[in-house]
Amino acid sequence: MDIETLALHAGYEKDAHGTMAVPIYQSTAYEFRDAEHAANLFALKELGNIYTRLNNPTTDVFEKRFAALEGGEAAIATSSGMAAIFYAFANLAAAGENIVCASQAYGGTLTQTAHTLKRFGIEARFFNVHDMEELRSKIDDKTRAIFFETLTNPSIDVADIDAIVAIANEHGIVSVTDNTVATPILCQPLLRGVDVSVHSASKYTTGQGLAIGGIMVERKGLTDKLKSNPRYAHFNEPDESYHGLVYTEVGLPAFTLRARLSLLRDLGAAPSPFNSWLFIQGMETLPLRMQKHSQNALAVAKFLEEHPKVKKVNYPGLPSNPNYKMAQKYFKDGMASGLLSFELGSFEEAKKVVDSVEIFSLVVNIGDSKSIITHPASTTHQQLSEEELVACGVPSGLIRLSCGLESSNDLIEDLKQALERV
Q: Does residue 282 fall inside a structural domain?
């Protein structure tokens, strides 16, 4: 099926009532037929619902549908995008090991990897997403993951997916990408060999800023990469916390199975069934919305590129942008999503524009149907020094825009009047 059809139908088989809409199974727990049935579920001899922290029928549809859009084998939903990123790392690395991350990344991701994971004994090493030799130099026998964003937020760079995958496979390392900004509508990194894709479903997936959630998807065949791989002994040895289960020998997708039985079980960052239902609703229109988001962003980027007060525009849909060729290679029809950024001369000029817009809302979110403006240096990245801001592609005069579904003419007029006040 084409992706537009999958977005509407994948993962849902109508129940006895024939409901067209996926039902909301707002339940904490589920009754077992008898003691043997309960025992079989816990032993994985049968698959079914046990407790909503582990699985839920509504969330199951969300996971299956999203996996279908990504071209993956299985997915696991979480309570937020940050939880999905943390679970991806926690599923692969332990104290004394390391992960290698692109420095061009969302501010919350940089904080989690550089600081929070450090307290768990996991080291984060950083590389420029455009420098493959720097990536190679960070890898050693303790490296357990290579992480990058397909379309970086907020620096708006496009990663060379094929090159990163080749390096990861050369070393037998699991590659993980955050595909939130591009969405599987514009980019399907798993089909290019990336091992795990993570998303903040709070962004384009819901599309209206209605719910917080995340999801991670494993590619088809990832279990074969994990099996007998010395970097991932915990997937190949008996798990004492789950009656000696060996994840790569069960016959189910090992990465998401372990995340469900170990991480969701013990840490509990599960989505609510209602939020999963909201994500399902958003997915139905995601293909159409991503076209409009991309069209609006391109129109705004072209306007900003010609404005005398704008130093630089970061949008890979512009032929003048250094990421343009990568966007044409990796993104459907060259569409580059709704996220862009532009630079003014100073921190104060950027704040003046942010305070002067009328249609754009000052919000630290992206992917909403309504357009959003953010000044990263004073919000999401304020914990970074000036040098660190420049290093991750977010100088103090940079403004990030998430172009929504309004008229592009109105968005341009709003920015025009705001820039006139600088």
A: no
Instruction: Give the structural domain span for 345.
Output: 288-419
The pLDDT of residue 396:
86
- As given in the structure block, the two tokens for residue 173 are 């390392």
- CA distances (Å), 337 to each of 23, 76, 243, 373, 378, in order? 30, 24, 45, 15, 24
Strand partners, 126: 101
The yes-or-no verdict on residue 210 having pLDDT over 90 is yes
User: DSSP state, 271?
Assistant: P
Mean pLDDT of 272-283: 98
Residues 266 and 167 in one domain: yes
What contacts 115, CB < 8 A, 6 or more positions away?
none
338's tokens: 């709704």
Of 208, 179, 205, the residue nearest 192 (C-alpha): 179
State whether 255 and 334 are in the same domain: no
Residue 305 sits in the same domain as residue 380: yes
Domain containing residue 325: CATH number: 3.90.1150.10
Residue 51 CA: distances (Å) to CA of 28, 243, 272: 6, 19, 12
By CB neighbour count within 10 A (0-12 exposed, 13-18 middle, 19+ buried), where does 76 fall? buried
Residue 55 and residue 18 share a domain: yes
pTM, 2 dp: 0.95
Which segments of 151-238 are extended strands (E)? 174-178, 196-200, 214-218
What is the average per-residue pLDDT within 256-271? 97
Which DSSP category does 370 fall into? S
In this structure, the answer to whether residues 296 and 388 fall within a common structural domain is yes
